[in-house]
Design brief:
mainly alpha; Double Stranded RNA Binding Domain; zinc; metal-binding; 50% helix; TRIM/RBCC; 101 residues
Amino acid sequence: AKVLEIARRLSRGGDLRTDPQEEEEEGCRRHREPLEVFCKEDGALLCAICRESRSHRAHTVLPLPDVVREFKGQIQAGLQTLKGHRDKLLEIREAEMRRSW
């Protein structure tokens, strides 16, 4: 749910630091319909009406559950990389502290 909320906020050009209570109500701003798919070309969440519009008809779209799964995978991979870097930095710091003593 958190990943989906972040994707929605980013697709609207939102700032991750803003309070979710300040965000406009969820859904398409233009059509007031629920957001159902993610347009890969534009990086935006779309309602069914926007999806069928000329501007998105030829674009690649993914259903939201697929987008959430993809984002989760990317976030987990990024976290693993960061943990590896952190562990390496801690080892270097420990070695430097021992050497300085």
